[in-house]
Structures are given as structure tokens and as C-alpha cells.
Amino acid sequence: MANTATSLxxxxxxxxxxxxxxxxxxxxxxxxxxxxxxAQLTRDELAEQFYRDALAAAEEAERTNTGYAGEDVHxxxxxxxxxxxxxxxxxxxxxS
Length: 96
Prior knowledge:
By secondary structure, this protein is mainly α.
């Protein structure tokens, strides 16, 4: 990877906070900021994927006219939390 320079202009109070947080973790301020940017990018990418998956699920539900009843899903997860191995809920038509 090429080493490219990028500069950030930080307000003094932000710079002080970055310096303190980096020192507490035994990192350089640069390493702290790189890690913070990478973590935020990962969160943003995961949120975008979640959104795309939700849209695809909604489109599939619309196309197939099927979905899962909330009470069936809740009962399934309650049983799983109790350590049981319940049958998965069956999809059902959601429109008449």
C-alpha cells in the first residue's frame, strides 16, 4: 500500500481528546485516528448492507406474499433462549 499523506485539521479540544485517548491505549495519535476511521467505515458499511438486506427481504415478501408471524418468531426465540431446539416457524401468507 502506498504511503499517502492526508492531513486533518482538528479543533484543539478534539486534538486533546485524541491525544489523551491514544495515550490511554498506548497508541500514537495517528494510529488511534486510523483505527477510529477504519472502525467507522466498517460500521457504515455494515449499516448499508443491513439496509440492502432489509430492502431485499421486503421485496421477497412482497413478491411471494409470505412472511413470519411475529408471535411465532418470538416463541421460537424464547424457546431457543431456554436451551430448547424448536422447529423453525413456517412462513404464511401475509395478505389475503
